[in-house]
Design a protein that fits this description.
Helix content is about 55%, strand content about 5%. The protein is mainly alpha-helical.
């Protein structure tokens, strides 16, 4: 069975060098200032695009750009918190994290009424992701010890965390930023 590429693409460069053991050990404290910055953002603007798609049948480009950049920043923050990159999350640079999805042509690519129920249709994903998030937290804790002792993030653990974040991005893109009507696949791989 051939898998087609999902319209929301996410990847993180695997660090082919030793990670900083000191910042890894103190990451829980070092991440606090950038978490405060992230908390001051209004979050994903779901209701605006939803109303625009339903009533005006358009997705304003500036709203799309805002949501894309906000998701990119949130992903850099998540990757940093998950110890996958030593570089402090930039608010305006790609760094080692890539997230992309195309601007949708609303009249031909999006169903006008589907945004009203996408969040509901994604409930099976929320359940699976809740279980995966617990597993990911345990994997990050084990990886934290691995990095402290070896300076390296075990590749299998890195790939698992990357897959969980990818899955989150697909669900967010489908159910909340409303950039695709393709139902997200139940898989970690690209």
């Amino acid at each position: 069975m051939q898998q087609t590429t999902y319209p929301i693409r996410f990847s993180v460069d695997y660090p082919d060098h030793s990670l900083n053991r000191l910042t890894t050990g103190l990451r829980i404290f070092v991440v606090i200032p950038i978490l405060i910055v992230a908390a001051t953002l209004p979050g994903l603007l779901f209701f605006g695009p939803l109303l625009m798609i339903v009533f005006r049948w358009k997705y304003p480009r500036w709203w799309f750009d805002w949501n894309l950049e906000l998701q990119r920043f949130a992903n850099r923050l998540g990757v940093y918190a998950a110890l996958m990159d030593d570089r402090y999350p930039a608010t305006d640079e790609e760094q080692s994290v890539r997230l992309d999805f195309a601007y949708p042509e609303v009249r031909t690519e999006l169903n006008r009424w589907l945004p009203l129920v996408k969040w509901f249709l994604a409930i099976p994903h929320y359940i699976v992701l809740a279980v995966l998030d617990v597993a990911a937290l345990l994997v990050v804790i084990v990886a934290w010890f691995a990095i402290l002792f070896t300076g390296r993030y075990p590749f299998g653990m890195f790939s698992f965390i990357e897959g969980v974040i990818r899955w989150h991005n697909r669900v967010i893109g489908y159910a909340f930023t409303l950039v695709t009507d393709r139902y997200p696949p139940f898989r970690l791989e690209a």
